[in-house]
Specification:
Elements (H helix, E strand, L loop, with lengths): L2 H13 L5 E2 L5 H10 L8 E6 L8 E5 L2 E5 L10 E3 H7 L4 E2 L3 E3 L5 E3 L7 H17 L11 H5 L9 H38 L1
Antiparallel strand pairs: 1-2, 2-3, 3-4, 4-5, 6-7, 7-8
Helix pairs in contact: 1-4, 2-6, 3-4
Length: about 200
């Protein structure tokens, strides 16, 4: 079976009930913002994208031909935001599912907050994809697709990456501010409610 077909089969299994978009069905706007925010090279092919934010894309993960790219909330530190399939293959024994994060080894951490997938499911998806990578008879860092395979994938590359990245950063800051204010308001409302109960 063709490698791309097997990868699509894995992603399709998780696509139905979860928040994965697969190419050629990744919305163009999402791919543009993801490429800008995650500094994805123009020659990379996006296989799937998953947003973990309500904005166009300031947090989330992209599964590419050459590896995975991700962006966390500013509160979740990570040593890197990109791993090749070879690196993931070498580090998969270090993968750990935490409550809201996925540890990928060597300080690489993916923030899964906002995902419909449990962290253990995210590791399962990556494990299955790594298995497909390891089955290839190649020393490449990523998946090897032939020309016919690649013709099935769209590659939508924005021309205004700097603008999109700046806009996404503003959206992230606004979302963070809204979250902060909603916490304050809920705390304030809670204390008012408790006071009215005691009267």
């Amino acid at each position: 079976m063709i490698v791309l077909d097997e990868i699509v089969k894995i992603l399709t299994f998780y696509h139905g009930e979860n928040n994965f978009n697969m190419n050629p069905l990744v919305p163009r706007e999402i791919e543009h913002y993801a490429r800008a925010v995650l500094d994805i090279p123009d020659d990379e092919y996006v296989l799937a994208a998953m947003r973990t934010s309500f904005t166009k894309f300031h947090r989330g993960i992209v599964i590419g031909r050459d590896g995975i790219y991700w962006q966390n909330d500013i509160k979740v530190e990570t040593s890197v935001n990109f791993l090749t399939w070879r690196q993931m293959s070498e580090q998969k024994s270090s993968f750990r599912a935490r409550r809201t994060t996925v540890e990928l080894g060597n300080g690489a951490v993916f923030d899964n907050t906002g995902s419909l997938n449990k962290t253990s499911v995210m590791i399962n998806i990556l494990d299955l994809l790594i298995d497909k990578y390891e089955e290839q008879e190649t020393d490449r860092d990523g998946f090897v697709f032939d020309g016919l395979d690649l013709s099935e994938l769209m590659r939508s590359v924005p021309e205004n990456k700097a603008e999109l990245k700046a806009e996404s950063a503003e959206s992230a800051a606004a979302a963070s501010t809204v979250s902060f204010f909603s916490i304050i308001v809920s705390l304030f409302n809670g204390s008012l409610f408790r006071k009215s109960e005691t009267k």
